[in-house]
Amino acid sequence: TMSQNDIAKFKDTLQAEGKEIIVFFSQPFKELKMSSNENIRKLYGELKNLESSLLNSGKYIFIFKPHPQEFYYKEFNFKRVVEVIDLNLLVASSDVCVTIFSTMAIQSKVALKKTIGYLPKYFSDEVLNQMKPVFDATSDNVEGIFYLINNTLKSKEQEFDLVSDLSIDTKTIVKEIIEI
Prior knowledge:
Elements: H1 4-14, E1 20-25, H2 37-57, E2 60-65, H3 87-93, E3 96-99, H4 104-110, E4 114-118, H5 125-129, E5 137-139, H6 142-154, H7 170-179
Parallel strand pairs: 1-2, 1-3, 3-4, 4-5
């Protein structure tokens, strides 16, 4: 089991003192041919812009967490990539989780973390709607995501009406969330 000490040690390794930790949970967009190569290249470029904005503010640490079957991201040289980690530790250590449709959005929400959806218009509605009910807020551009991160963290009060039983599988949790 994970302790507060484990979280503190992880944050120490990140040199995160006084900074908020933002995690982007990615997916194998190119590997699954989820959009045109041009759009997928654009997506990673936009994520690099988000990373730059967050790091340049001096208030954040940005972690790019690739999907285990994702490789294309390596062409974009994200500053801090965490490929192998206990996902529960990563979520517990984060302040905000951002994703397009990773089921990590559910784990983030259950862990009472701010969960933001990045929903670029060049993905299909089917892709964009998968996790939409789970997100606290969404934007279709990285400027909006940056704004949401800044404003989400200003108000530390968290209001959640969602309680999920972690003993049930992800599909059941998603189905329950969508029905809310």
